[in-house]
Each structure stands twice: as C-alpha cells, then as structure tokens.
Amino acid sequence: MLRGNFHTHTIFCDGRNTAQEMAERAVEIGFTHLGFSGHMDSEIRMELKEYNKEISRLQKTFRGRLDILRGAELDVLFQPRDEEEAGLLEQMEYLIGSVHYVQGADGNFFAVDDTAERLTEGCREHFGGDYYRLARAYYDLEAQVCDRLHCTFIGHFDLITRFNDDLHYLDESDPRYYGPALEAMEYLISKDIPFEINCGAYNRGRKAELYPNRFLLKNLQEFGGELLINSDAHQKELLDGGFDHAVRTAIDCGFTHTNFLEHGPDGKIVFRQVPLDGELFS
C-alpha cells in the first residue's frame, strides 16, 4: 500500500470528516505523508483563515509521525474574491489544478461532475447536445490549468467522463474525444507538471476506471509524463481507497515510479520519486 495521499477533502469543503480525524486515520493505517487539498471554486469555497490555522496546528501536533502538507484544489475558472483571499491562497504549500466547470458561449458555466442531470442540461443548453464539442471545450480549459493556476500537479484529468459509464455520451476511443485530450496532455507535459492517478470515483464505486483512463495513462507514460497516485478522499475510510488497483494499473501502463510531495530540509515542498515496488509499500 502507498503510505501517503495528497488529494484529501474535509468538512472545510465537501468532505465528511474533520482534518484531525483524517490525520488520525492516516497514522492508523501507516501513512508517512498526508496532503490536505480543500476545494476553492465558484460553488465550494473554504474559509481559508480557519483552514490555514487548523492545518498549521495539525502540522505541529503530528510532527515526527506524519508529514502534513497544506494545499488547495483550485478550479481553472476560480477567481479570488478579494486581495485577502488571494493572499491566503499564496500561503498554500501546493496546489492541485483541476477543471470542474465549463463555460458556455453566454459566459455562464456548469459543473461536469455534479450530477448527470446537470451535465446533460448544460451540454444541451450550451453545446446543442454535442458532447464532443463539450469535450473539446473541457480539454481546452485543461490545457490552461498550469498557465492560469501555476499549480503543483494536475487533478483528475478526464473528469468529463464522470457519468460516461452510465450515460455513454462519449465514445472514449473516438478521435473526436481523445484528440483534444492528447493535445492538452502534451501541452501540460511540456510545462513539466505531473498528473495524478485519481481513485476518487473508482473507490466509491461510481466509475469502472481511474482518472486518467488506461488509454490516456499509457500515452502519458509514452510522452514522458510524471504521476502521483491519490485517493481524492472525502471520508477517512477511503483515505487509501483504490491504491492497490492504481499501482497495478500504473505498472501495466509502463510506469516504474510514482511521486511523493514532502517538506525538504528548508521546509519547502519537493518531489521525491518512489519506485512502484519500493520502500513506501507494505
């Protein structure tokens, strides 16, 4: 089992457990690293002062037992509401760059991962029901994640497929779908930014595949991309959810290592490569 997770949500956003409970669970299951990454987007917005205060407290409380990192998950369309909020975000030790929303021609936006009904309505209203046009718009935004957010790694790259297992609105083997995805992927790799394997929907039984799917993951490896493996946990019981499957999938796709985030000797966050059959596994 991997002994760390860097995509973790708590009651500060849409998670079920407190940050304290998440940290206690991490120690209980043998984690050495835990990164908190509360949502900051147009619909889910943390109270950053309290969040920063609590994660800083936990870093001191668990020092020597668990390397706790303070981060946030930003949506590509996110805009700080004022200078104070922008300043508090600058205190984050790492950022996940994600796309949860797509904008229509009228400037309004809708979530691609909230409900199937909201996705269907948004595609019909803004893209005439053409899911391939929607996918193009989604991946056009994905390609901007690094430039807009200056993030540390890419979150759930193909979230646009969240409901595809049930609704089959996209043929993921169709060039109209994967062409824009690969274009965005290649551009982001040119920025030297890693991608996560995200187990969130898989470990909650909502999706048969991980993010990215195997086809995209194989291309990521062939393009020379780097990865992290994260559970996207919204409850403590799933803090390590899907890890065994993710490790096997990464190896099957040609990866030999994953990456961990940790505090370096100077206190700044650094990447460390971890062999996929190596020291951080039980």
Pick out its properties.
282 residues, 37% helix, TIM Barrel, alpha/beta, two-stranded antiparallel ribbon, 11 strands, globular, 11 helices
What does this molecule look like?
The protein is α/β, with parallel strands linked by helices and 282 residues long. The chain has a single domain, classed as Metal-dependent hydrolases (TIM Barrel, Alpha-Beta Barrel). The chain is built from eleven helices and eleven strands. A five-stranded parallel beta sheet has the order 1-2-3-4-7. A two-stranded antiparallel ribbon has the order 5-6. The chain is globular. The termini are close together. The model has no long low-confidence stretch (mean pLDDT 95).
Instruction: Please bin the fraction of helical residues.
Output: 25-40%
Query: How much strand content do the residues show?
Result: 15-25%
CATH topology: TIM Barrel
User: What's the architecture, going by CATH?
Assistant: Alpha-Beta Barrel
| Secondary-structure-derived class | alpha/beta
Report how far the terminal alpha carbons are from each other: 5 Å
Q: What would you call the shape?
A: globular
Question: Could you tell me the mean pLDDT?
Answer: 95
Write the layout of secondary structure elements.
Blueprint: E1 4-5, H1 19-28, E2 33-40, H2 48-61, E3 67-75, H3 83-89, E4 94-98, E5 101-103, E6 109-111, H4 116-127, H5 131-142, H6 145-149, E7 153-154, H7 164-167, H8 175-190, E8 195-198, H9 200-203, H10 214-222, E9 227-230, H11 243-252, E10 257-263, E11 269-275
Parallel strand pairs: 1-2, 2-3, 3-4, 4-7, 8-9
Antiparallel strand pairs: 5-6, 10-11
